[in-house]
Amino acid sequence: MRGLVLREIGVPLELSDGLELTPPGPGEVRVRLRAVGVCHSDLSLCNGTLPQPTPLVPGHEGAGEVVAVGEGVIRPQVGDHVVLSWIPPCGSCFFCLGGQPNLCPYNWQTNPRPVLSLEGEPVNSALGTGAFAEETVVPAAAAVPIPVDVPFEIAALVGCGVLTGVGAVLNTARVRPGESVVVIGCGGVGVNVLQGARLAGATPILAVDQLPGKLAGATGFGATHTATPDQIPEAIAELTGGLGFDNAFEVVGRSATIRQAWDATRRGGTTVVVGAGSLTDEVRFSAGELFLSEKRLLGSLYGSADVRTDFARMLRLWQGGRLDLEKLISRTIALDEVGEAFAAMERGEVIRSVINL
Ligand code: APR
Ligand code: ZN
Ligand code: ZN
């Protein structure tokens, strides 16, 4: 089958038509991908910011149709439309039973199973998903059924950017109506944090991005005010009477912007780190400021969500007109245009490019 292969970190993706996929084993399903979003984390996999062994098929924001199921699989069934989850919950561990299935480690993170090969050499599936290809084999829990009337492009986006962004507001921070919010980084995930904040009834909602072009778009996703990073102090004075924001969301994935988000919150305020940063990029806080300010710093992985119910919840919100998902799709592309989609993302020209397969 066809797919995009990263031979080693830093080299361009290669379109191959010789990828081989093993049949689904017990508890696994084979999915024919129909639409796949290009997320910044895919670029981070390709440039080494998020290290994974190569050769690698990136792609993790996907939707498609189940074409085969392995032994013992009851759900999903062949023909079901599914959204891929890049953290499939095992369903029985401490985290799954305790209401934090997004932290379940019993998947590719602790038990990688190679399902791809190229010319006899094993190839990794990024985040256990490997969605930049025509088909993939994943655990049944990674293929979550959705209604058949949802377009695949819409469904794909729910699989990462939408759930990560909206979930950070509703699940991680649990923002309440009338709380103030600042969002630093208004790309494909950041605009979903803005939409989530609007949904939660937050106000004011300040959108911050280094690219002024992103700020105009941010207003359409719920921002009540916008600022470039250097204008943050002014905005704090104007919008919060100098106190600082109740909630700050960092959606870039860098220590400098995490520090900026933290500094923009009030005493007792909450900073949520949504961006996927590098393991070696350290943020500094003094012991005294933590203690005296009583500020909170929260990580947010995959929107602190339970994909078994939250994919459907996002789609209901979209169907009810409460989330705008169409507007996230800047362009639809072919598989061999992902390299160009990365470049467009880096130039800040697109919210999401979506591959049609
Ligand atoms: N200050 C403010 N905004 C910044 C800064 C900065 N120093 N650096 C980058 N940005 C903005 C970019 O201009 C862009 O609008 O952050 C945004 C990032 O958006 P995308 O490239 O579309 O990335 P996205 O897919 O939204 O992912 C954001 O979340 O899932 C993770 O790995 C992903 O870490 C990444 C982050
Ligand atoms: Zn992603
Ligand atoms: Zn588990």
Tell me what you see in this structure.
- This protein is of the alpha/beta class.
- It folds into two domains: 176 residues, Quinone Oxidoreductase, Chain A, domain 1 (Alpha-Beta Complex); 141 residues, Rossmann fold (3-Layer(aba) Sandwich), CATH 3.40.50.720.
- 28% of the residues lie in helices and 25% in strands.
- Strands 4, 6, 7, 10, 11, 18 and 19 form a seven-stranded mixed β-sheet that branches.
- β12, α4 and β13 form a beta-alpha-beta unit.
- The N and C termini lie close together (12 Å).
- The model has no long low-confidence stretch (mean pLDDT 97).
- The chain binds adenosine-5-diphosphoribose and zinc ion (2 copies).
- Adenosine-5-diphosphoribose (APR) binds next to α1 and α3.
- One of its GO terms (molecular function) is zinc ion binding.
- It comes from Planosporangium mesophilum.
- Belongs to the zinc-containing alcohol dehydrogenase family.
- InterPro entries: ADH-like_C, ADH-like_N, ADH_Zn_CS, ER, GroES-like_sf, NAD(P)-bd_dom_sf.
